[in-house]
Structure formats: structure tokens, C-alpha cells
């Protein structure tokens, strides 16, 4: 059914329950064992950065154990369970072959809930098991099923192989929660039965040596204000390298757009830290790697720009008033072709010796700095560099007037990014509440500048592709008209962002905004 | 979410058997189905072995004090839930009359369930009352069993007239011959064609008078599960296909003619 209520789960001491377990029913409740065992293949899925787990959701793909003909997925279902144990189920269908995007599923409550939690991230299989399930209905005095007791004997099959402890799961039926609770209380006292410490998913993950939320794909470091700056910078840069490398396999497989995005973020942050704090490193080290990380950043830019475009494409097409969304198709096709070509270059770059050497050499050099001593402290470095980046952003922003070119806003955007990265890199030195307050106005300004710059890039791409389509005569007039209308909408968005800029910058540059960032760096010394 | 109401002015004509069977078949087809037993006699509730009790009674439901979802019970059939009957439903007309917009209250009670169910089947008590008007305002399709008897056909005329006089939103009408005994000459004569003036609204599938259908209440097991390949189940399957087509859930197709049963459906096994 669409909604099922929280289960009660137990672990058995042996492979199968003793006779006493089946007789553990309460007065008026009778467990009726002897049902046929069925084999199912199960996969638990989440995004790379555990978005479902963080939203309190568990997604299980369950398919009959025997291959079901050529399709192989007949009868497969997806079960999305919330923190309260309520589950939404849906037929898996051909779109649900992992990894897949929530948006690829058929319309319905399952897709809506999954899409809200996972967004644009792909759902990846994190653990897989083969389970032999035997169901025993628990009946009341009227012979009505009020709960289903399932004996679950599972073996982990991926990412490694391991036998999992046998489990008993009480699945209450809707409207019969009290009966299931009574049954759970009775089973809890049965010999050889222990309440399960975690869900079947958590047990499977633990057997594979993992735990939920163990990887975010993002840098996360703990620093102390008094540690040597060189060691602190090395810790930050190593964490960024970890994040970059963690996102490379997903980028190469093109699982979703966020692997590349997070890889880019790690690279940009690395470049920002090198620029701002490279002086804290041994002489020459930052200079040696600066050009290499620029190469890596530039390698990732074209695909990301096109990803942003393609992610926004449905809204762009839906926003057309005079033209039909289908008129834009030739444009989308060109975007896809461009992306395919850009992706080819990106993949070659990430598989190149140059990238391998960069990653290995960088890790080796940073590892050698772990025991660095002397020089300024991490707190002094953070305070100094954050203050410098803050001053630069204020200076660039203060010189922007109504007639300033787009490039001026782009330069300010880069300066703001650098400030933001420094604030986040040294976040563990700051009071979290102060950090949140300091970042609030900066974030609002960045959002405004981001919208402006995205529109700038999109307009340039629209003009360029329109020129090509016109020159080679490969698109009907309707496509060019639709692109013209879309360009008008993008330009309007850009103008709106430009109109917003003065207010956003005034907030950032206000005495209060300045004081909040100064207070942050004072606390870090 | 579509709403199908098994409804007739006369009692004892096979409403509950049809409601239960079609609900089971819909769930067997993979739909998320809720059967609401609106009849205080609680035959459908009894058949699913559920206690005929709703906390606060019908008054709490129609007044909105008890959200319908809190009164729902799972049946033993995957995909099929039941909103049980309650003896207080005998006063449902009075309770409805005390509400604002009393003729559309039932529709309002069902509205929050839209995300949870694909189909709601209403098993209605006999009669024409404020509850009936609520059913007509809530339903997309009215499934009306007609036994092959002169008076029964007359009540179908009355019902069609009642619906025509309602104005505003009202359901399609799909009537079907019910409890047909082909040993009886009168039944054979009456069911030879649709009743006059009801050609478009008459299902081509008829439900025969079969002991298997009577037994399902004694055995407390829907005939579609007890004997999924039997004649009764095949007939209900044919009727379900016609109802599906009328509800826009599948393309219309030529149904079985006369008393010939429809094709057998997927078995709806209990949990």
C-alpha cells in the first residue's frame, strides 16, 4: 500500500527462529508460520553526498531473486521509507536501473519525494544483498491479518560479500499499530531474539565497513588557532585534494552534474588558498602548482557552463510565451553536442598523466608539511588573509557604478568567492553563530552576482549558437525566434540581478556587515 | 484519484459484491485502492474481517474532526485499504445536514486522500437521500446493479432522472444486469437488451446469480481471491474493464456480450 507504518526489527541468535519465537503471539494474536520462502535482490540507494540519509529517508530497490526474462526487472519495486517508518512504494520500471536520477521516474508521490530530497544528484547503489524472506502473518481472533512477521536471511553481495545476521521484522498493517506493538513486546522476550541495533541497510553498510553519511565529497577540516599556519594550510589543501579526487570517478562516469561541480569547487578553493595563503608554504611550492591547478580548473569550465545551461533548460523552455517549447529543440541539441565534445576533452584530461602526476605530487608534497613548525599561527594567517580578501571585495564593489562593464561585476564575484572560500576553509577557527551571520550578506551578494554572470555566459552561448544555426541553415526560423525570445528572458533576468546589485552590495559593505566579518577574524587570532 | 460508487436505490441487488470485487481487482492491477463501506449494515467490512467501528463515528468523519486517513485499515490484500463501516452511519444524513455545503461534504472528506490512492470505491447504502447526493457529487462513475425485474428497471429510471435533475458536477452512470438467473424466462427476456433509454449506460457484462458470490460473505473472502479463474471472478473482471474504460483508466474496448464472462484477471492474492 502507499503508506505502511514503522516496523519492529529483531536480530536472531541463530540462522532461524526457534519454535518458541513463533509461539510468542499475545493472547488474541496468532503467528502463522509456514509461508513459502522467496528470494529477493535488494539494493539500498542514496546520493554520493547522502542526501536521503540526511533527510531521514531510506531508499530500497527490491527485485525478485530470479532473473525475469530479458527485462530482468519485472516486479521490481522502490520503497522509500521516512524517519517515521512510513513508506512510499512505486514500481521500479526501466528508469530505475541504478544509478538513476529521481526525475527519470514516472510521475507520482515517490518521484516527488525523491526529487525533493535528492535534487539533481544520482541515486547510487551503496549496498546490495540477496535475501531469503519468509512471511508469517499474525492474525487476530477474527482471522484478520494485523501484522506480517518476516524472517529475513540476507547475504551482502556488494560492495563486498558477507553473511548478515538473520532478522525478524514485524511489519504492521495500517490501522493495527497497537497489535504490532503488542506482538513486538512479546517477541522481544522470546529466547534467541534481540532488538536490532540498526536497520537492514545500516547492518549491510556496517558489514561493508561503511556507515551512513561517511562521505560528503566536500572538504571538512578541524584546525586550531595556535597551530602553525603551514601545517593548517597543508591540512586544508589535503582535504580539498581528497574532495577533488573523491569526485573524479563520478565525473568520469558522468553519474550526475554535481560530481564535476564539487570537483570544480575543490579546485577553485585550492587555487584561492594557494593565492591567499601560499606564502605560508615552503618557498616555491605554491608557484609550482598554481599553473597546474589553473589548467585543471579551465579543463572543467566548459562542461560545467553547459551543465548549468542544460539544468536550466526546462525552465527556459517552459517560460516561452510566443514560441513553443519544442521550437527550442535545435538549440538544446547543439548544447548537448557541445557538452559531448567538451566532456571528451575533460575525460581525456582527467585520465592523463598530467592529472595523475599533479594529484600524486601534490599529495606527497602536502604530506611532508604535516609536521611543519614555526612561522605565524593559523589564527593569524586566517585573520590576515580574510581581512585582505574582505578589503579587496569592498574596494572592487565600491568602484562599481551604473555604467560599469560586466567584467567589473565578474571580478567582484571572483573576489567574493575567494573571501567565502577563506571563511569556510578556516571555519573551524570561528564561532559558528558569528560565521553564519558574517556569511549571510556575502551569500546574498554572491547569489546576485552569480545570477548576473550566469546570464552573461548564457547570452553569449545563445548568440554564438544562433549564429552557427543561421550560418549552416540547420534550424528552422521558429528555432531562431524561440532563441530570441529566450535571450530576451535571460537579458531580463540579468537586468533584474544588475538592478539588485546596489542593494546587495550596500548590505555587505554596511558598517554592520563589515563589523561582522571583523568580529569573526578578531575571534580567530 | 478516481471515485467509483456502487450504488442502487434498491437493496440486496449485488452492490457490495460488486464493490468488493472491483476494489480487489483494481488493487490486483497494481492500483492503490480505498474501499469505503458507507453502509451501516457493514457487509463489506465484515467480509474483510475488520471491526465495523470508526472512532467518533460518522459525525466525526463528516465534521472533519477525524481525518479519513486516521480511520483507514489495511485489508489482507496488498494495495487495498478499507475505511470501515460504523453503525452510526445510519445517521449520516443528519450529520451531513449539519455541515456547511452539506451536498459536497463527502467529496471534501476524500480530498486529502488524493495523493495516497488511485481509486476510491464507495459501497453505498440503498435509498435516495442527502448521502446519495453526496455520493453523486463525489463520484466519477456510478456503478448501478439492476436485477432483471420490472421494478428494478423502474428504479434505474428514477435514478437517471434524479441525476439529470442535479445539475453541476455529476457522475457517469454505468448500470449492469446483476443476479441474472438464465433458468428464468423473465430474466432471459429482460436481459436480451439494455433497458429502454439506458443503452449507452448499460455494461455489456452481466453478473450471474452464482452461489460462489453468495458464499464470499459466508467465507469472508472475496470471490476474486477465492476462485480467481471461476465464472464469477471472470464476470467481475469484465465489469472492471468496462468501468476502467469509463473512468479513463484504459482505452474502451468491446466488452463481453450478454452473460459471457470477461477475461480472467491477475490473481489478487492475500498477504
What is the string of helix and strand elements of chain A?
EHEEHEEEEHEEEEHEHHHHHHHHHHHH
| Terminus-to-terminus distance of chain A | 58 Å
CATH topology of the largest domain in chain A: CHAD domain
**Structural category of chain A:** alpha+beta
Low-confidence stretches of chain A: 1-6, 67-72
Q: What about the largest sheet of chain B?
A: 7 strands, mixed
Model description:
The complex is a heterodimer of chains A (525) and B (271). With 525 residues, chain A is an alpha+beta fold. Chain A has 16 helices and 12 strands. Chain A has helices at residues 19-22, 51-54, 109-118, 177-188, 200-207, 229-246, 248-253, 257-277, 285-318, 329-350, 353-367, 378-398, 406-425, 432-472, 477-509, 511-524; strands at 8-12, 30-31, 38-46, 58-64, 77-81, 87-91, 100-101, 122-139, 145-158, 162-163, 167-172, 193-195. In chain A, helix 14 crosses helix 16 (511-524). Mean pLDDT of chain A is 89; it is low at 1-6 and 67-72. Chain B has 271 residues and is an alpha/beta fold. Helix content of chain B is 38%, strand content 12%. Chain B is built from 12 helices and 7 strands. Chain B has helices at residues 15-28, 43-47, 57-63, 68-71, 92-97, 105-110, 130-138, 150-166, 185-190, 211-219, 223-226, 231-246, and strands spanning 2-6, 33-37, 73-74, 80-83, 119-123, 141-146, 172-177. Chain B is globular and about 50 Å long. Residues 253-268 of chain B have low confidence and may be disordered. The interface between A and B is medium-sized, with 16 and 22 residues.
Topology:
The complex is a heterodimer of chains A (525) and B (271).
Chain A lengths: L7 E5 L6 H4 L7 E2 L6 E9 L4 H4 L3 E7 L12 E5 L5 E5 L8 E2 L7 H10 L3 E18 L5 E14 L3 E2 L3 E6 L4 H12 L4 E3 L4 H8 L21 H18 L1 H6 L3 H21 L7 H34 L10 H22 L2 H15 L10 H21 L7 H20 L6 H41 L4 H33 L1 H14 L1
Antiparallel strand pairs in A: 1-11, 1-12, 2-8, 3-4, 3-8, 4-5, 5-6, 7-8, 8-9, 9-10, 9-11
Helix pairs in contact in A: 6-8, 6-11, 6-12, 8-9, 8-13, 9-10, 9-11, 10-14, 12-13, 12-16, 13-14, 14-15, 14-16
Chain B lengths: L1 E5 L8 H14 L4 E5 L5 H5 L9 H7 L4 H4 L1 E2 L5 E4 L8 H6 L7 H6 L8 E5 L6 H9 L2 E6 L3 H17 L5 E6 L7 H6 L20 H9 L3 H4 L4 H16 L25
Parallel strand pairs in B: 1-5, 1-6, 2-4, 2-5, 6-7
Antiparallel strand pairs in B: 3-4
Helix pairs in contact in B: 1-12
